Fold this sequence. Notes:
Chain A has 222 residues and is mainly α. Helices cover 61% and strands 0% of the residues of chain A. In chain A, helix 4 (93-110) crosses helix 5 (112-121).
Amino acid sequence: MRQPPGRGQRSSGERKPREERWPELIEVATEVFYEKGYEAASLQGIASRLGILKGSLYYYIQSKEDLLFEVIKSVHEEGLANIESLATGDGDALQRLRKVIVGHIDHECGNLKKTAVFLHELQALAPDRQAQILGGEHAYRGVFSNLVATGQKEGLIPEGLDPKLAALWILGSMNWVYRWFRPGGEFTARTIGEQFAEMTIRGLAVADLQAPGAVPGEQPAG
Amino acid sequence: MRQPPGRGQRSSGERKPREERWPELIEVATEVFYEKGYEAASLQGIASRLGILKGSLYYYIQSKEDLLFEVIKSVHEEGLANIESLATGDGDALQRLRKVIVGHIDHECGNLKKTAVFLHELQALAPDRQAQILGGEHAYRGVFSNLVATGQKEGLIPEGLDPKLAALWILGSMNWVYRWFRPGGEFTARTIGEQFAEMTIRGLAVADLQAPGAVPGEQPAG
DNA sequence: TCTAGTGTAAAACAACCGTTTGGTAGTGGC
DNA sequence: GCCACTACCAAACGGTTGTTTTACACTAGA
Lengths: 222, 222
């Protein structure tokens, strides 16, 4: 079964340069953290998927928590850049909000494991590292509360709504998706994003305003 | 420092009947799981808060996972009974949905630790135990999708919306609250529940219908 | 007074954890 | 052909974990 090091074919034992090993490590760590959760995951398990020994991981990291930190930091930066670019596009606040919601859910579903690790294991980090990632006043939430506040100035959203609460309301519905979405399942990311955006926009908009896009009539497959 | 067993005063060493110890155990376990997370929590820690040795816990449980199961099961039953009673009251579907949302968030914030353990640590259980708790087709979600479907029959909610997606949308926003709510903080559970209900109902209702209750004008303290 | 049962102590168990240390085969630059 | 460096192995470390076993002080009932 276990061939001597004739040639590849084994998943283990290959010596690789840092530039190749590092992203591999991040990817494998993400998968293992996703499957087992951070605390239940072991460096042993990560190392053996890479084909090296767990002690060898310390050539790349200084601690297990470092690994989680690196994973989460990269996911957060990626996701934040995504919605910030969507939020600063054309159109009024509600039109931009629609794009952000659809785009964020699409990104979330397309990067399910990474997102799940970020959303679920963030609190496994030490508090100062959590703060370091989220930024002083929750950059992520800020994008949404700013959109809501802008919508209020534009007269599209009633002044009675608290922008921060509205932002948390939106974030909650979106950040729950990773819990039940499965690729190839009942709903596509697109379907989810569009219906969520529809309901959310309608929930925020003033009474006498109706969003131009009608309720999408597509029947989800399955 | 360490008094010989003269009389009480120490938090440890008291022998108690099962009826008294068992709920104490569940409560302490809930707290520890809340603070550290299930995997990172140790039976050692739970036992020492009770003033007994970790081995003695096995007089009450058969495994650590059993403990989590008991905690989660009781929380789920409690929460489900709460929203089911609210969902079967008077009024049309949207009026009942409003009550359910406000009541559920109130319950969630009033039982923050229990709820957090349920929502965050459920997936630490073996899959069959998860299924055993959630019920065959997610009893919790069913309450909301049924309300949405009923609202559609009553002509209050457009037929184009998928009731299951709508239910997941609602659940997400509510189940995110435990992540940021803090007692005595910026918002009361009541404020959160009412604004969330307001936005959610409006997001679901057909265009030419306006909910009787206006947007709550209260300014949240802080 | 004897007895059965209850709630806990005490101690040990193997297993596994994250981390450290020291060594080394291979490689590219000089 | 030497040297420094890179990427990893090999082995061990102390500590903690969940769990099991045996024993025992105490209590209630007969």
